[in-house]
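tl;dr need the bound structure. longer version: we got a ligand (adenosine-5'-diphosphate) that a collaborator sent over and nobodys looked at where it sits. i said id run it. heres the input, straight from their email, havent touched it
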Amino acid sequence: MEEKPEKLIVNGKRLDGREPGELRPLKIQAGVLKRADGSAYVELGGNKILAAVYGPREFHPRHLQQPTTATLRCRYNMAPFSVSDERKRPGPSRRSIEISKVTREALEPVVFLEQYPRAVIDVFIEVLQADAGTRTAGITAASVAMADGGIPMRDLVASVAVGKVDGTIVLDLNKYEDQYGEADMPIAMLPRKKEISLMQMDGNFTPEEFRQAIELAILGCEKIYEAQREALEKKYSANLGGE
Ligand code: ADP
């Protein structure tokens, strides 16, 4: 493990040169996989994440089918080569099972699941390279992939973490900040309604810090939402152009 840096904020700036309220460089691409019904690729700083969506399709085994609604199934997975040290073993871990569950809960409110009784929609999130904030970037990617796949949705879901480092509230923590900061709070938001569908917390905030952190997370999600829409518009206009 890297050594703890003495300070995470120097002259008001973070170690990677960002302002407290600044996102890492963000790139979103929709429709990157041929064989999935919908897909998206997200880069956020050092994170590289692919999301693939299949369905709605018949749910097997049939006894798992829900008679009045479709089932949303999410699988978050970290590739063994996605992190620098050897702590990552291939296959599901307690952490990836938890993240798969909160991802499903973050996405479910936007999908018109009741339109497809008995069906299943599968969402696969593959972390190719990790640098903190993978669950939130995975949710961001998955909602673009679902929209790309034409799944009827009320809204997208935009997601980012906020936290506290050296007593300052910051947006989109990198690995150092996640590891050595005082708090980390992943948030997912339905941007049009400003509803929150994921909130987790590691560490603690005072009530005033919590208020500031939520405000910053909302601003961050709005920027992410813009990039999500641009990615979908770009894919859509390329298709109209006959690509
Ligand atoms: P998130 O990626 O959503 O921030 P965590 O807070 O659990 O989730 O993890 C923070 C970061 O720690 C990850 O993005 C990744 O860079 C690193 N990490 C997580 N699990 C492992 C692991 N098993 N081995 C090495 N690094 C890991």
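gonna send this back to them w/ a short note. The first helix runs from residue 94 to 107.
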